[in-house]
Amino acid sequence: MQSQSQAGRAFQSRNPFTNKVVAEFPFLTNDELSQQIQRSWDAFKSYRQTDIATRREKLLKLASLIDENPEKYGQIITEEMGKPFTAAV
To answer: Within 10 Å of residue 88's Cβ, how many Cβ atoms?
Structure first.
């Protein structure tokens, strides 16, 4: 349940060049934040046991996804950083 102080509040990501709102992210309540922190801690404890070969595989997969979609990620960088598109890809 969201506390009254958090209801309707959101962080706005803006393009610094145009000041256009790119995305909004709702603020979390204290309980939601505590749950997210606990989930992150649990994931960290599990992931730190992962062997180096598996970690390497996951990072290479991430790099591959980025390489396959340069326009998508270039557009996000352009909007969030206010950079020209050519500088973002």
So the answer is: 18
**Which residues, 6 or more positions from 75, have their beta carbon under 8 angstroms from its beta carbon?**
85, 88
Question: Is the distance from CB of 85 to CB of 75 less than 8 angstroms?
Answer: yes
pLDDT band at 89 (very low <50, low <70, confident <90, very high): low
Task: Specify the pTM.
Answer: 0.58
Write out pLDDT tens, residues 14-29. 888 888 998 999 999 9
Residue 22 neighbours by CB under 8 Å, 6+ apart: 13, 14, 15, 79, 80
DSSP annotation of 65: H
Strand partners, 81: none
